[in-house]
């Protein structure tokens, strides 16, 4: 299989109907979702999920002999595209420097000399390996549209300013394809909110104004009612086409019904006037499964099999199944065995075939995910610290009472939860979804020692990656075009 050629010269991205074009030519995106959070690390300041600035090349660069070289490996697999979930311009303050909410409220990112990240090295490496980057704007709609009303304008300005500055700094870089304005922010209650769409539009337009030859999109949760949404009486498709260039849709399992829905509700609806290309912004098959904990049915342990939830008619007992992981269940997780991986790889081939069979409007895809993310189901670190220092007690089943700390006037439903740590790879809350095992690559210890940082803040000894059988299956399908 021929490897990607390095990207040379400027890159101009346009859309014609349902066709995505690079410098006037059709392109098929064989992409991955790239969020290489090391094991034992979480989403913390100052990078808050941004693993792409210049000092983190130990994971993705090939400059030094000890670098892991993720981008070069992608090139060898036929990957020509990636999407990130985070990408910050300004560094958030550490707790020792300033409370982050105070920083947002006073617009601390606008301070003269405010600390910033430099992502040029990452983009240069992508360019050398022929990888086009969809930069992810880490939109937190809870902060922007649902937090303390006095904070909402500041959060909105932070994201708009970030989108604008990303475009100004990187919009002319040949490896940059565009900006993804959030991931799975479409939720019941928001979808019909005009202010929600106006805020996201403002971010899209801010980027477009400073990156005139690039595109914008949103990566949507696969909501069956999404394309039936009306905003101030107008169809969502009409509003969306005004502000964005392509759709992203995260689809798991068989894709055909979702792709057919997109075809009828977007591509063909209203005589095609709302048509835009689709990028399948997440799809995949995973690499592990939840398994029953022997303690679940051990009479001596006597684990509670139900928990209470609040309904409109009051508290109601719901079951805790044997394959439910934390925070409420005690299931364990393991990597697939050989037979399970064969099934997973067969499904991967089938799903990619469905993407390819709809290439008249599907411009490509982003496989989820490059590597395992151990932080996905972790408990807040402050809670873990309280457990470790004895100020938060666990019951006989290893559960803590939530909320914690308990407000003195709290009269709601107390939940009992199983804590999990970012230093461990846990089962998922869903019996079918151990998200910490969802990578093409498993994380393993670097034989040279644990991750470290030089006195200048450069990472060394990045986690080692172990390829799962899904790697070869993805390479096989990507070679088909």
Provide a descriptive summary of the structure in words.
The mean pLDDT is 96. This protein has two domains: 13-287 and 337-376 and 438-478, TIM Barrel, CATH 3.20.20.80; 293-330 and 379-419, no CATH class. The protein is of the alpha/beta class. α6 (152-170) packs parallel to α7 and α10 packs parallel to α12. A hairpin with a 5-residue loop joins β21 and β22 (459-460). The strands form eight sheets. Strands 4-5-6-7-8-11-12-17 form an eight-stranded parallel beta barrel, surrounded by four helices. Strands 1-2-3 form a three-stranded antiparallel sheet, with no helix packed on it. The chain has twelve helices and 23 strands. The protein is 26% helix and 20% strand.
Which features does this protein show?
about 475 residues; alpha/beta; TIM Barrel; eight-stranded parallel beta barrel; three-stranded antiparallel sheet; 23 strands; globular
